[in-house]
Amino acid sequence: MTEGLLTRRRFAVLGLGALVGCGGPRRSGVVGMSAPGAEAVDGAGSLKAHAAARGIVYGCAVDVEALQNDAGYARLIREQAGMVVAENAMKWAALRPGVEAYRFDEADALVGFAETNGMKVRGHCLCWHKGLPGWFAGEATVENARGLLVEHIERVAGRYAGRMHSWDVVNEAVEVRDGRADGLRDSAWLRLVGEDYVEVAFRAARRADPQALLTYNDYGLEGEDGDSLRKRVAVLQLLRRLKQRGVPVDAVGLQAHLTVGDRFGPGMMAFLAAVRELGLQVFVTELDVDDRKLGVGVAERDGAVGRVYGEFVGLVLHEPAVNVVMTWGMTDARTWLKRADGAGERCLPFDEKELPTPAFFALRKSFDGRRV
Ligand code: XIL
User: Fold this and answer.
1) Does residue 366 have its Cβ closer than 6 Å to ligand 1?
2) How far is the CA of 272 from the centre of ligand 1 (A)?
3) What is the distance between the alpha carbons of residues 364 and 52, in angstroms, rounded to a whole number?
């Protein structure tokens, strides 16, 4: 424990945050430093604690390399996250340097970190048309692709069997614009393995890890626009087909890569209710908010991004099937989003200085408002 942390905690406990000037500890652990009623953002004030009090697991995607080399980052993740998922370290490209070669160092490190700190782990992802290694295009064929997929899932999900909260087994398999009646994306997996590749992947995952909750994960399911509506219809059809065929799917992942200006409402809620009626859980898996439509002013951006977090999470938590909320990162210092104007991101619960943003408070308030 660093001295900074002790200081931070003590200030929080004593409620003296309002007296701490900006020249104080690097991150004070208190908010509204000049405002009365400052409150701790760690311990009982953390996102994971507020979520857990309402039966929700809060967590985030992590950069495993940073987890190993940046102590401040690791501390923030330990402080706030009840569950972690590798942003990239469990994708094919990270695990499969060669057709026969696997490397598990980062993936193992993440699972070890989570276990040491009493956190849950999600796996992401076993079958996706992106995140594939360079060799895949040249080596995968109609003859060997099914075997490659099944062997990969057995090896990877099998390695962590019994230790994972859930796996994103198939990621982003639906693309309505590809024009197929079944809504499936015209992906390498579809072309090489065939239409049953989704089923093949889920069955292999269940065999390899009977305990993990097996998840179908996708984006673009949250809005009230026509694209979201059509995608929800197609995903629901896919889920119904899978359930009818006895395919072991346990949950749907809403990626929730949102944009300022998005509207959420009855279309999404009806979808979530239909998912629940199929006997499935719902996880918010990759939440963040893109503000590139706005100018560079931080106050305006923070207000708008915080409102999107509050509106979206407040709404989805009305659905009892939603019990996990993961953000796609914890701090703006490490996010996959990049504004073209170089203004720096303001899309996650903590900013580049590891100070809580309006998104943090919106998340916490949304957790607090969940009916238990
Ligand atoms: C992204 C990572 O955040 C980036 O670092 C990487 O370069 C590309 O992938 N949907 C997903 C995630 O399911 O795996 C993606 O992660 C973001 C979109």
Assistant:
1) no
2) 24
3) 11
Is residue 39 annotated as a catalytic residue, yes or no?
no
Q: Which atom of ligand 1 is nearest to the CA of 336?
A: 3
Confirm or reject: Cβ of 87 under 6 Å from ligand 1: yes
- The predicted structure's pLDDT at residue 8: 39
pLDDT category at 97 given cuts 50, 70, 90 is very high
Q: Would strands 120-127 and 166-171 be described as parallel, antiparallel, or unpaired? A: parallel
As a whole number of angstroms, the distance between CA 281 and CA 43 comes to 28
Q: How far is CA 308 from the centre of its chain?
A: 16
Averaged confidence pLDDT in the chain? 92
**198 in Cβ contact with 170 (< 8 Å):** yes
pLDDT at 214: 99
- Give the pair of three-digit tokens for residue 80: 């706030």
Give me the pLDDT at residue 372, please.
82
Neighbour count for residue 69 (Cβ, 10 Å) = 10
Q: Peptide bond before 125: cis, by omega within 30 degrees of 0?
A: yes
Tokens of 315: 């709404």
Please identify which residue in the block is written with the tokens 């994306």.
185
List the residue whose alpha carbon is closest to atom 12 of ligand 1: 87
Query: Between vectors from CA 281 to CA 196 and to CA 168, what angle results, nearest 5°?
Result: 50
Backbone angles phi, psi at 46, to 5 degrees: -75, 165
Q: What is the pLDDT of residue 23?
A: 28
Distance between CA 126 and CA 205 in Å, rounded?
8
**What phi and psi values does residue 119 have, to the nearest 5 degrees?**
-105, 160
Q: What is the pLDDT of residue 188?
A: 98
| pLDDT tens by residue, 11-42 | 343 333 332 223 223 344 444 443 445 679 99
pLDDT per residue over 221-235, tens digit each?
999 999 999 999 999
- Which residue has a Cα nearest atom 13 of ligand 1? 171
Residue whose CA is at the smallest distance from ligand 1 atom 3: 336
Q: Which of 79, 172, 175, 345 is catalytic?
A: 172
Stretch 320-327: mean pLDDT, rounded?
98
| Whole-angstrom distance, CA of residue 110 vs CA of residue 63 | 9
Q: How far is the CA of 61 from the centre of ligand 1 (A)?
A: 10
The residue with greater pLDDT, 6 or 244, is 244
Compute, in angstroms, the gap from residue 87 CA to the centroid of ligand 1: 6
* 257 CA closest ligand 1 atom index: 18
